[in-house]
Amino acid sequence: MPAIELRDVAYGYRSEKLLSGFSLSVNEGEFFGVIGPNGSGKTTILRLMAGLLTPQSGEIRVKDRPLVDFTRRELARVIGFMPQESHFAFDFTVYEVVMMGRNPFLGRFERPGKQDQERTRAALEFTDVWDFRDKGVNQLSGGEKQRVVLARTLAQEPEILLLDEPASQLDLAHQLQMLAILRRLNEQKITIVLLSHDLNLASIACSRILMLDHGKPAACDRPEKVLVPELIEQVYGVRPILERHPETGTPQVILPAG
């Protein structure tokens, strides 16, 4: 059964129609990547999947149920959404931020219980931010804050994880750490949809990749079928050099010298 389906979805901003008759199916337990240039519709598709945008026509289904039938609380127990950037008006502690991920499980005036505390700690430890738990979130670096936001998302115990550029502010060591975290989650049968500008990261991480070109699928297949010179040149306007990763055999994109 698909985890998420978009069926003939249309969406646009003002007079510009970004998506028209767009369909996509992401399988349960899949590690799915979405790539494409700026303005190609990547973030719009992710926000539609998360229920943050409403399609102007067509239907979105989550676990074979219309997305519009979910309450916000129900949806938050199924889908975790991690935006590219998060801003905090108040300097909550890291622990407080991650505990916010338990809100879908609490009543209006209910205080977190033992299980909520255990889930929060597990998420903090899983993302390697337990040692920061008493720090103000606004005191952290961009990369540290991204891991805290991921921890908050994991505290929701989602079955589907939607990620918008989760490694964009991470150094190489923490990119590898983030990739290891996501792989472990996927091994636990969590469906992952990853948006990335980094074609090489998407190639290593994802079992299937959608390449978008102005709101339309240029290709949707295994990395070795999508990341080919002709398609990359067509969509990005640059003809790259492609090599094989020595460990995984997946394609790696090298920019020409100029």
Structure description:
The protein is of the alpha/beta class and about 260 residues long. It has a domain at about 90-155. The chain contains 9 helices and 12 strands. It has helices spanning about 40-50, 70-80, 95-100, 115-125, 140-155, 170-185, 200-205, 225, 230-235; strands at about 1-15, 15-25, 30-35, 55-60, 65, 80, 160-165, 190-195, 210-215, 215-220, 240-245, 250-255. A 6-stranded mixed sheet has the order 6-7-8-3-9-10, sandwiched between helices. Strands 2-1-4-5 form a 4-stranded antiparallel sheet, covered by helices on one side. Strands 11-12 form a two-stranded antiparallel ribbon. The relative contact order is 0.16.
Itemize the secondary structure elements and their pairings.
Layout: E1 2-13, E2 16-27, E3 31-35, H1 42-49, E4 57-62, E5 65-66, H2 72-78, E6 79-82, H3 94-99, H4 114-126, H5 142-155, E7 160-164, H6 172-187, E8 191-195, H7 199-205, E9 208-213, E10 216-221, H8 223-226, H9 229-236, E11 241-244, E12 251-254
Helix pairs in contact: 4-5
